[in-house]
């Protein structure tokens, strides 16, 4: 059973992993980001190419030069909303006492991403994260899985907000290829507007999901 102490402790551990140690863990969040691009692209009928991760923590999902407008908008928006969306899905499963589902569904998603990776760093990240999730799901006790599930969901929610930092610097630096810049080109709304939208959406997911997990532990 979850309790308030465990919910708070896993939140603090996840914060340390996602922020102070973010340079070592950001690639896992980037996988969820690029997975969002990939999923919405496939759902809207776009022929999506390979995913590549960069050493700096960024990533790239290969799209054709010509993409239908709506598909382009949806798949672009799905990137920075991806980690938060997966995190909220995890909150829902935890609320229904399905901590093991959090682990297995996350594992399946990383396995699917593995087959889409296009560079060694992407392969290593997907394999390492997948092995960790598999080991916890198959070797840890139910209580330990619950604790890890809370930490993992916290990590995705916090990591979703943390990832906006990279978008801020890309936008501030005048990048023409960042998701905010792409949304500006597609909608004619300024990139700083989309930066705010992504940040507010990720922050709202963190506040709502975090409050829900603390409530579950009460």
Comma- or semicolon-separated keywords:
two-stranded antiparallel sheet, mainly alpha, single chain, about 220 residues, 2 strands, 9 helices, about 5% strand
Domain module tally:
1
Shape: globular
Summing up helix and strand content along with how strands pair, one would put the structural category as: mainly alpha
The largest sheet, given as strand count, sense and whether it forms a barrel, is: 2 strands, antiparallel
Care to count the β-strands? 2
- Which strand-content bin applies to the residues? under 5%
Poorly predicted tracts of residues:
none
Order of helices and strands: HHEEHHHHHHH
Protein described:
It is a single chain. Strand 1 (51-53) and strand 2 form a beta hairpin. A two-stranded antiparallel ribbon has the order 1-2. It is globular. It has helices at 4-18, 22-43, 69-95, 99-114, 120-139, 142-162, 164-172, 179-187, 191-217, and strands spanning 51-53, 59-61. The protein is an all-alpha fold. It starts with a helix and ends with a helix.
């Amino acid at each position: 059973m979850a309790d308030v102490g465990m919910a708070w402790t896993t939140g603090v551990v996840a914060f340390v992993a996602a922020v102070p140690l973010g340079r070592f863990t950001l690639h896992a969040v980037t996988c969820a980001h690029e997975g969002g691009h990939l999923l919405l692209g496939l759902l809207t009928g776009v022929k999506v190419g390979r995913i590549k991760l960069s050493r700096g923590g960024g990533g790239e999902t290969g799209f054709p030069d010509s993409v239908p407008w709506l598909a382009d908008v949806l798949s672009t928006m799905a990137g920075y909303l991806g980690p938060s969306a997966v995190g909220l899905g995890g909150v829902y499963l935890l609320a229904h006492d399905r901590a093991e589902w959090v682990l297995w569904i996350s594992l399946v998603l990383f396995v699917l991403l593995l087959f889409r990776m296009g560079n060694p760093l992407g392969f290593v990240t997907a394999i390492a994260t997948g092995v960790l999730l598999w080991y916890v799901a198959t070797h840890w006790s139910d209580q330990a899985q619950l604790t890890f599930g809370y930490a993992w969901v916290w990590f995705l929610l916090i990591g979703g907000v943390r990832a906006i930092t990279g978008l801020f610097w890309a936008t501030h630096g005048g990048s023409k290829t960042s998701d905010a810049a792409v949304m500006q080109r597609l909608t004619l709304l300024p990139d700083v507007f989309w930066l705010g939208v992504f940040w507010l959406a990720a922050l709202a997911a963190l506040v709502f999901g975090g409050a829900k997990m603390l409530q579950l532990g009460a």
